[in-house]
Amino acid sequence: MKVLVFVKATHSSEQGIKPGPELDKMFVEMGKFNEQIIKAGIMQEADGLKPSSAGKRIHFKEDGHTVVVDGPFAETKELVAGYWIWNVKSMDEAVEWARRCPNPMPVPGEEGVLELRPCFTLEEFEEFVPKQEVAREVAQRKQIKRTTTEQGKRWAEAARKAARKPARKSARKPARLAAKRRPARAKAKK
């Protein structure tokens, strides 16, 4: 089962990374913990997030319009400072691993909090999503898998570069040749 593990933000994490002995110790301990969950085949992805001052929120209105709100966002207890994506056998296993995690917020007086949220499986969506949308989701997941492999990343980058390049000069050449032929045809019609 896939579980998203949120590292909840604190007042200090919202102030940005500040060097210090507590932070150094946390990074060493967190590195060791990450090695353990990688070796156990649990971790699929992880990252820290910049403070909400670097973020934006998109609000969807009933009339179909969207409103963009720049950070920072006031309620620190509702914010996320980082995340892991874990692949575990059960929520019990996820909780077991989370309990072994070093405190992600090492600032004295602040409490680190992890929130574990199981993800829906595709099979669970099949219960209430139209079949053609499930098929689309399957195709999209395959596409994501292809583009996240090293070869897929190279292909995607090549496609992005090709899309940014201006038209080649050789592509214009046939147009010039066609333009030269037109007057000759026009004379023949007279």
Question: How would you summarize the topology of this molecule?
Answer:
Layout: E1 2-8, H1 11-14, H2 21-39, E2 43-48, E3 56-60, E4 66-70, E5 80-87, H3 91-100, E6 114-118, H4 122-126, H5 131-148, H6 150-164, H7 169-189
Antiparallel strand pairs: 1-5, 1-6, 2-5, 3-4
Helix pairs in contact: 5-6
Describe the structure.
The protein is α+β, with helices and mostly antiparallel strands and 190 residues long. It folds into 2 domains: 2-119, Alpha-Beta Plaits; 121-190, no CATH class. The chain contains 7 helices and 6 strands; from the N terminus they run E-H-H-E-E-E-E-H-E-H-H-H-H. The protein has a 4-stranded antiparallel sheet with strand order 2-5-1-6, covered by helices on one side. A two-stranded antiparallel ribbon has the order 3-4. Strand 3 and strand 4 form a beta hairpin. The termini are far apart.
Quaternary structure:
single chain
> What is the number of independent domains?
2
Tell me roughly what share of residues is in helical segments: 40-55%
Q: Can you identify the CATH class of the largest domain?
A: Alpha Beta
CA-CA gap between termini: 77 Å
CATH superfamily of the largest domain: Dimeric alpha+beta barrel
Strand content: 15-25%
| Count of extended strands | 6
Could you give the order of strands across the largest sheet?
Answer: 2-5-1-6
Low-confidence stretches: 175-179
Compute the CA-based radius of gyration: 26 Å
CATH topology of the largest domain: Alpha-Beta Plaits
Order of helices and strands: EHHEEEEHEHHHH
Give the overall shape, derived from the CA principal axes.
Answer: globular
Mean of the pLDDT scores? 84
| Number of DSSP helical runs | 7
CATH architecture of the largest domain: 2-Layer Sandwich
For the sheet with most strands, the description reads: 4 strands, antiparallel
Helix/sheet category: alpha+beta
